[in-house]
From TrEMBL:
Gene: ymfD
Entry coiled-coil feature ranges: none
InterPro entries found in the cross-reference section: MFS, MFS_dom, MFS_Efflux_Transporters, MFS_trans_sf, Tet-R_TetA/multi-R_MdtG-like
Record-given protein name: Bacillibactin exporter
Domain Major facilitator superfamily (MFS) profile: 8-399
Location of the region described as Disordered in the Swiss-Prot/TrEMBL record: 399-418
GO CC field: plasma membrane
Keyword line: Cell membrane, Membrane, Transmembrane, Transmembrane helix, Transport
Natural source organism: Paenibacillus nasutitermitis
């Protein structure tokens, strides 16, 4: 990797860390929010869902703007919105008599800000590096930062909630503004000419997206897999958080237990990013194997319903590791397979699908928890298995219109990845 760009990459990696903290840090606090606000588990899950739901709508616009103007011009205002909304949610919790509605509104605004942050990070990494191997490695670091945020989130959220349940809201502006400073001063983003941004109107933009999706049908498979991965992760996290609460576990211990499967997710993402390099065949089978492992772990957990906490955590850790090993490959396939002038837009569509998984996971699991634990895990296992099947049919290196299994000289023009 280019040594002079390591600080750029580390600064960029702070963005997914911040965005993850802004959402996942609240998961271990949801039971406390239910009691303080007098709401149901389903309503509590909406505090997570609305953040992702509004991001789904605005991520494609953010991708388009980042392609037409610059990545930093979209990321920096997004971080400011995330920061302001976090403070607003905390103030509403402290002073308002009917805080729930105001918190939901603040989370909607926060989701709008997040739409311009993490989704734009993926194409920015692709812009910074010339070698595809460096792009894959950089994306592995970005996913590791994202998953490390998930590891840190339950511990930090539980620790802050010891003071008061709304304190995690006030922590969000601190992390957001720290990331803002790093990106502002340390990230030397490519110029508009180097980024090859597309100076097109909205109609031309929409036609070009339609053309890309028609030509590159493999993108639908990547989109679906990204959404499924996030659905499985956030759904299982919500279930684990609620289950640990019913077992009377202390806040800090609960945070530490939640961090175990997420640590496996983080480690698997890091190792996978190093392993895949620029070989598309390796990416395909890494995705398939990881998703198969995730499906197996969830299926076993639903079928063998031992009451031991260690058993549940161990199976979720295995499933999380499987998901973690697939994510860097998905990022690399979609980033290296799209030309730079369209990369922000297309990767933003991919990020929208991931946010759909984040949005629907907690409320669906909240509803399934009232019916059957076995059904809950069968649903999670089945979706992971569907994603593994999609990998087999959607990613086919070497076929017409798809990238070969590996590339030659680094200076060769980047061929579309699948």
């Amino acid at each position: 990797m280019e040594a002079k760009k390591k600080w750029d990459l580390l600064s960029i990696a702070s963005i997914p860390l911040t965005m993850t903290l802004a959402n996942s840090m609240l998961i271990p606090v949801l039971p406390a929010m239910q009691k303080a606000l007098g709401i149901s588990p389903f309503k509590a899950s909406l505090i997570i869902t609305v953040y992702a739901a509004v991001a789904i709508l605005f991520i494609p616009l953010a991708g388009y703007l980042s392609d037409r103007f610059s990545r930093k011009a979209v990321i920096l205002p997004g971080l400011i919105l995330v920061s302001a909304a976090g403070a607003g949610a905390g103030l509403a919790a402290v002073w308002a008599d009917h805080a729930y509605g105001l918190i939901i509104t603040a989370r909607l605004i926060q989701g709008l800000g997040s739409a311009g942050c993490f989704p734009v990070v993926i194409p920015l990494v692709g812009d910074l590096f010339k070698k595809n191997e460096d792009v894959s490695s950089g994306l592995g670091i970005v996913e590791t930062s994202n998953t490390f945020g998930k590891v840190l989130s339950p511990i930090l959220g539980a620790a802050l909630a010891i003071w008061a349940w709304y304190i995690p809201f006030f922590a969000i502006p601190i992390f957001s503004m720290l990331s803002f400073g790093l990106v502002l001063f340390l990230v030397k983003a490519p110029s508009k000419e180097e980024q090859q941004t597309a100076d097109t109107g909205i109609r031309t933009f929409l036609r070009s997206i339609g053309s890309i999706l028609k030509e590159k049908k493999w993108l639908y498979g990547i989109f679906a897999m990204g959404g499924i991965c996030m659905f499985v992760i956030f759904g299982s996290l919500f279930y684990l958080s609620e289950t640990l609460e019913t077992r009377g576990m202390s806040s800090i211990m609960k945070g530490l237990v939640l961090a175990v499967p997420l640590a496996c997710l983080c480690l698997a993402s890091y190792l996978s990013g190093k392993w895949i390099g620029e070989n598309k065949v390796v990416m395909k089978w890494t995705c398939f194997t990881g998703l198969l492992v995730a499906a197996a772990g969830l299926f076993i957990l639903g079928w063998v319903q031992w009451s031991h906490t260690w058993w549940m955590v161990a199976m979720l850790a295995a499933a999380s590791a499987g998901i973690g090993s697939a994510l860097p490959s998905l990022d690399a396939l979609i980033t290296e397979g799209i030309e730079k002038e369209q990369r922000g837009t297309v990767t933003s569509l991919y990020s929208s699908m991931r946010f759909i998984g984040v949005a629907v996971g907690p409320p669906i699991i909240a509803l399934l928890m009232d019916k059957s634990v076995m059904l809950l895990f069968m649903v999670l296992a089945s979706t992971a298995l569907v994603a593994a099947f999609i990998t087999l049919i959607a990613i086919r290196p070497g076929e017409k219109g798809q990238a070969p299994g590996s590339r030659g000289a680094a200076g060769r023009r980047r061929s579309p990845a699948r």
